[in-house]
User: Which sequence fits this backbone?
């Protein structure tokens, strides 16, 4: 099953495209990090996925082919927006009551048990809670809808380090218990590095890389060697990004690190997710998109660079 | 300086039901799953874990470390293929073998003699890097001698 599938998806605000030609397939059962600089199109993509915005071009389906925004799609997705939307004057109990009445699917006893577990009193008003508690309340309301897909837009931007850790631990516990698929967006990759097993990299309104973290890491290598031989190397391997000094160069290449041999004269290192993301973000022309046809197009485009 | 009564502190295990709890070291450079694997092996060597003991439940580990559940599963799977643990469906993951063939009392005694050696080395003016270098080189020499004499001993009992 795929939790998200888009084809030629685009969103235009006025004359500016916030997202363009986005074709993406995200399989179920992953914790997906949607990463990119501010203004790259992350929130636009998430709004399209949850049905808060309508595409200007292309289509987006969720949870095995349901049109985004359709009643069946809405039932299966829970979304927590960037600013943790809560009514400040309502108590936790009122928020639970309201959310139950606004949704077809809602697990009341789960919500109350979870609030007790994280130490939020039912009579406490949302506006009086700490940032961490507000985030936990919003997360509880989302999880009590028993979603198949949980979408969190910049969930930790406003939280202190301890609240961040507790929030992420709660999300991971939900993944372990209910097998919910999760998409989290952030412009800081490092805060998602330990939780994500799938990466979608967005920049300038298009998808630059997407895939299972394990595959991405195994599909790239960092080579260190003589700067004078970069051109020879480029003839044999796909270079994503090169950092060169007068004599020595560090080159991030696309190669099967499990089977391909290291070119003579070069020293190979495994890449980290952060190095990989930075390399792609620095080279807007490079793309790594697995899947049929699409990846070949990306490869040939990369060769042309 | 006053110190609060540690009445609550550490009284409730974050990963209950197991003799050990995991921690993560961001600076170690090791993948997260490998850190978990090494901590189990370390605990086995030091006798904190013995056959029959249960490893922390996946839910409890992710709930306290905030890592992806698949990372914990990968670590447990790795330990299982090494023959150190066994996963029982619906019950948990249990220690099946041990890395230490030396009883705890004997380990304590060995540790004491090592400490005595460290004191001697310190008195002789050796700094910490010097001690590590000396131990490493001695261990190397020892392994070469033993390797020539008997071949390698198996680590897993």
Assistant:
């Amino acid at each position: 099953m795929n939790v998200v599938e888009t084809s030629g998806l685009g969103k235009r605000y006025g004359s500016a495209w916030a997202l363009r030609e986005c074709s993406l397939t995200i399989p179920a059962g992953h914790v997906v990090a949607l990463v990119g600089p501010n203004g790259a199109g992350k929130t636009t993509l998430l709004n399209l996925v949850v049905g808060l915005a309508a595409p200007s071009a292309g289509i987006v389906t969720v949870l095995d082919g349901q049109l985004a925004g359709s009643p069946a799609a809405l039932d299966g997705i829970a979304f927590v927006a960037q600013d943790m939307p809560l009514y400040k004057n309502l108590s936790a109990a009122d928020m639970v009551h309201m959310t139950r009445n606004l949704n077809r699917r809602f697990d009341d006893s789960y919500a109350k048990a979870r609030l007790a577990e994280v130490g939020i009193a039912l009579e406490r008003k949302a506006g009086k809670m700490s940032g961490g508690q507000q985030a936990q309340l919003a997360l509880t309301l989302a999880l009590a809808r028993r979603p198949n897909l949980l979408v969190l837009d910049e969930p930790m931007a406003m939280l202190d380090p301890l609240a961040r850790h507790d929030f992420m631990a709660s999300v991971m516990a939900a993944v372990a218990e209910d097998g919910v698929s999760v998409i989290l967006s952030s412009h800081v990759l490092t805060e998602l590095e330990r939780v994500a097993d799938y990466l979608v990299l967005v920049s300038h309104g298009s998808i630059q890389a997407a895939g299972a973290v394990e595959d991405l890491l195994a599909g790239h290598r960092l080579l260190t060697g003589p700067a004078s031989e970069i051109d020879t190397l480029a003839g044999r391997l796909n270079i994503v990004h090169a950092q060169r000094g007068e004599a020595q160069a560090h080159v991030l290449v696309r190669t099967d690190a499990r089977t391909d041999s290291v070119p003579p004269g070069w020293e190979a290192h495994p890449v980290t997710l952060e190095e990989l993301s930075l390399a792609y973000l620095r080279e807007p022309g490079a793309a790594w998109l697995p899947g049929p046809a699409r990846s070949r197009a990306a490869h040939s485009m990369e060769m042309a660079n | 300086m006053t110190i609060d009564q540690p009445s609550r502190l550490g009284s409730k295990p974050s990963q209950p039901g197991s003799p050990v709890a995991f921690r993560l070291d961001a600076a170690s450079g090791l993948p997260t799953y490998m850190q978990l694997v090494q901590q189990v092996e370390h605990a086995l060597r030091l006798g904190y874990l013995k056959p029959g003991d249960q490893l922390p439940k996946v839910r409890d580990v992710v709930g306290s470390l905030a890592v992806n559940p698949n990372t914990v599963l990968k670590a447990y799977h790795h330990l299982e293929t090494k023959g150190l643990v066994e996963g029982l469906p619906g019950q948990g993951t249990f220690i099946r073998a041990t890395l230490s063939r030396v009883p705890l009392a004997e380990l304590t005694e060995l540790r004491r003699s090592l400490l005595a050696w460290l004191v001697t080395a310190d008195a002789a003016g050796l700094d910490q890097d010097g001690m590590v270098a000396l131990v490493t080189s001695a261990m190397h020499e020892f392994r070469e001698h033993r390797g020539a004499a008997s071949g390698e001993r198996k680590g897993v009992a």
Remarks:
- Chain B touches chain A at residues 24, 32, 58-59, 62-71 (CB under 8 Å).
